[in-house]
Amino acid sequence: MRNIVLAAITAVYLIGAGSLVLADEAMKSEMGAMKDQMKADAKAAPEKMKADKDQMKADMKAKKEEMKSKMKAHREEAKAKRAAMKDKMKAKHEEVKGQGEAAKAQAQDMKAAGQQMGSDAKAAGQEMKDAIGAMGK
Length: 137
Hints:
Elements: H1 2-136
């Protein structure tokens, strides 16, 4: 019976030690794989960072160009609006100028008509004076 107990203890000891050795080997291989992965990640990190940085620069440049085009369109719109207002004001000025010239021409006509009426009245007054003078003689 002693032999059986001794054999059982020895078997447990050998199996336990063997499993520890197997676990140690598995752990070492896993650690090696993790180290290799970390090295690969460390090598890839600068490249990934550079790619991310380049992408960010490209995005910023695109956004800047978009804003630039929007500002240019806004300036062009404002410029067109100013030109339209200028043309409108010029047309209004020409209209008012034409009305002023028409009013000036009308005033001159009225002045001429007034002078004509004045000279006609003067002539009529002179005729009346002459007629009264001829009657009195």
